[in-house]
Amino acid sequence: MAIILFSCSDIKGQKSDHKYTNDLINETSPYLLQHAHNPVNWRPWSPNALEDAKKQDKLVLVSVGYSSCHWCHVMEEETFEDEEVAKLMNENFINIKVDREERPDVDHVYMTALQLIKGNGGWPLNVITLPNGKPIYGGTYHTKEQWNQVLSQVSKLYREDPKKANEYADMVAKGIQEVNIIKPVSDLGMLTPEVLKNSIDKWKDSWDLKWGGNKGSQKFMIPVNLDFLLDYAVLTEDNEAKVFVKTTLDRIAWGGVYDHIAGGFYRYSTDAQWKVPHFEKMLYDNAQLLSLYSKAYKVFKEPMYKKVVEETIAFLDREMKNPEGGYYAAIDADSEGEEGKFYVWKEEELKSVLGSDFETFAKYYNIKRSNIWENDSYVLFRTTGDEDFVKENDISWEEWAEYQERWQKKILTARNKRIRPNTDDKIITSWNALLINGFVDAYNVFQETAYLEKAEEVFRFIEKNSLDKDRLIHTYKKGSKKSDGFLEDYSFLANASLKLYSTTMSVSYLDFAKKMNQIAKDKFADENSGMFSFNSNDELIAKIIKTDDGVLPSPNAIMAENLFLLGHIDYDKEATQKARAMLSSMISVLEESAYNYSKWNSLLLKTAYPFYEIAVVGTDAKQLLAELQQQNLPNTLIVGSDRHSNMPLFKGRYADDGTYIYVCQDHTCKLPVATTKEALEQLKNF
């Protein structure tokens, strides 16, 4: 079977009349509603569905996808809308549709199964299980003919040799359980700079030093990797790593994976040079890239990075913001049944829209016959920086600014007349927490008050709509079922709240972070591994201990980071020790595969190298705090208080005669100083 990796698309338009309607009609997920009028008797995931399978002795077909998944959409049209296929499915299976963004736990369990069975994975994810939920088949996209063959063969196996089917299912289920086994480690002696260096040295062989990113025919941005590498490069003065990060950031921002007309990033590049993207736009990518490009601006002072941040925020506000303050999950890759149609251009269109500006525009965005993509269309991408382009084309900076302003206005106006891709309007708690961090990081660098206001608005939205007393929900949509949040929701939101505290000095954010952290510990703690399970119930066939990074950072690594930071804020040795113990359990895998464990490596960086606390205390703390936040200071916790406080970092330090900065390491502090310059000098020579 063909394996389609990380594929994408969105919802179809509503049909005026429907021959069939199934149980998905009662759901609010755009992806599930897309399938509500298939002739397949789809049901949403629930324990009841598995109970019915046991009563009827039927196999279970679990089909997992998401609204912006292109190949999910293709398989629906070719296969799930076909009455002949539906008849076969309905007679022999209990059929369950899952939105992976609503139920990442179900997706994770069965994606692990698929990877064990086939050695690869992607979406749509289609597994066939026994009535007890244990899988006996896994695959991704299938043509109608392939799917009919699979259904017939698996049904025949179950009827004729149930013993063999059960033995195989038990083996796969055991494999899933073993993947999620983490052995706690009591020896913390491996948390060293040497281990970290070994990890990076092994990773370097995979770097594409010309085009950035990891070598390969497709490229994913994975912001958590570049965020860690940037800190590592600065702290260890590893120039090769620093150049690699800069090359990658430049190539991404120049490439077709960035929307040069409206801002924001697409999902990934379908080629090795970042030219042609898969055109879906996901909130989690854009949220994390806000943080990354903001941090990179601190290091490199590259004007393009500031522009990327500004344009991405403008895109998010314009196209992904709910009127109440939260942000939607995704925008489809397809419109009018074609991938990328909303975003690509034919040469005649560009000439018509741009007039006399076309020639310069075409040079800048590589509009030439050798770069045609599909249907005589072009994806806009760059291969050089503005400074070189202006010089090569003998354009003054004043003319250049006018050119760009004209282009942007003309092209965006023309594009907005097209039929837009659909938007998945779920508001996912963990993804919005990442966006809070993105807004705060942008504010700390550029001191644009509106960015901090946006962060606090998202926080208030989550507090109002996604928090019921002490219970977080994973996704919010008016009228939707309120399903329990996962570890990522609690840990990411606690992390975002800590960032808000560090920037605003508002103790309410610190208290909220502590509250979320404690609830997460109570709900998800796994005694056997010393880690935290992904969900709080045991309805699935295996416990999930999510430790690796993917498009999202590992929720366990974020939990460990939260414990580490709270330990330094409160002088809580138990919290820092817990973080170190969790990290120690990951040393063997992060040393072998830094690419998949960058968030843990980020914590190792904070542990293996000196970590500092900077406390600003006094009536002018806000100003000095802002000055410090604008600096690039890896391995440093920056907090402030403009009043008397009994918190360990502030206790006895407030004075009426001025505002002072205390630079500390492991609770040992230098003499207080009154200026940022002096504090930075102390930090440099601690």
TrEMBL record:
What is the protein name stated in its UniProt record?
Spermatogenesis-associated protein 20-like TRX domain-containing protein
Which GO BP annotation is one of this protein's?
carbohydrate metabolic process
Specify one Pfam family.
Thioredox_DsbH
The record's annotation in Gene3D superfamilies points to:
1.50.10.10, 1.50.10.20, Glutaredoxin (3.40.30.10)
Positions of the Spermatogenesis-associated protein 20-like TRX domain: 21-175
Q: Which domain of life is it from?
A: Bacteria
| Organism of derivation | Arenibacter troitsensis
Q: Which InterPro entries match?
A: 6-hairpin_glycosidase_sf, 6hp_glycosidase-like_sf, Ssp411, Ssp411-like_TRX, Thioredoxin-like_sf
